[in-house]
Amino acid sequence: MRFGICSNIQRAAEVRWTGADFLEESVQGLLQGLVADAEWRGAELARGCALPILAANMLVPAELKIVGPSVDFEQLQTYITRVTARARQIGIKILVFGSGGARSVPDGFERERAVAQIVAFGKMAAEICLRNEIVLAVEPLNRKECNIINTLAEAMTYVKAVNHRAFRCLLDTYHFWMENEPLENIEPALASIAHVHVADKIGRVAPGESGSADYRPIFHLLKRARYSGAISVEAIGFNDFESAGKRVIAFLHRQWDEA
Predict the structure, then answer these.
(1) CB burial string 6-39: b at 16+ within 10 A, e below
(2) For the chain, which domains are there?
(3) How many C-beta neighbours within 10 Å does residue 177 have?
(4) Torsion-angle region of residue 257: left (phi > 0), alpha (psi -120 to 50) or beta?
(5) Roughly what angle, to the nearest 10 degrees, separates helices 152-162 and 111-131?
(6) Span 61-85, pLDDT tens digits
(7) Which of 13, 115, 117, 202 is most deeply buried (CB count within 10 A of its CB)?
């Protein structure tokens, strides 16, 4: 299994030192879809990166709304076209569609209309991703961070509604545990899981650092389904790679082996 760490490209050498296999950057930090082509320097940074960049999260900035009364679909299409072209240039294979600020449903806005807007965005973005050999992975966010697509089970309703091979889902252990989802919710999603994020529930710290998280039941299901994607550490405050990085990556390898 390939384990990586979410961090910025400037720290790629430190991430490699931990034993991680890849880096997961952010769209806003590296691909910068709101920045004109003439001003974008992401490709230059990526050429000198010490690790492959397999994925990028934070797909759509909060100011570019996917849901609500002021959605500019044409602007979204232009944005996604630019982001995916840059991702392909760098070699990124997964774009993570969390984007809680962009997809949150405004107070008083019809839920049914919000769902339709997300599905329309998903279909448009998936088609553009397919042309660039990229998969879009919709990420459930717990209800403290977003008011729609809060569980893996809910994410799967969008995967089915979009019905496109470039639109799949993401399993994030932190959000999964925060929503108290049962393991049974993973089984129907296994064929659609394109990427995995890991962090402990307590404090959203790096795996194993709270001393209370057991990833083996989830890893067992992934292994049984022959999951062939990658797993990224996405934890708050995890930046002391020198003292904790190797310990975290080694912990994940042990949990995977024991699952």
Answers:
(1) bbebeebebbbebebbbbbbbbbbbbbbeeeeee
(2) 2-258 (3.20.20.150)
(3) 17
(4) alpha
(5) 70
(6) 999 999 999 999 999 999 999 999 9
(7) 117
Give the CA radius of gyration of the chain.
18
> For residue range 84-103, what is the model confidence (pLDDT) as tens digits?
999 999 999 999 999 999 99
Only one residue has tokens 């570019």, namely 64
Reading the block at residue 242, the tokens are 């020198």
Tokens of 62: 């909060």
Residue 178 to residue 158: CA distance in whole angstroms: 20
201-215 burial code (b ≥16 CB/10 A, e <16): beebbbbbbeeebeb
CB 53 within 8 A of CB 35: no
What is the rounded CA–CA span in Å between residue 147 and residue 151?
A: 11
Give this prediction's pTM: 0.97
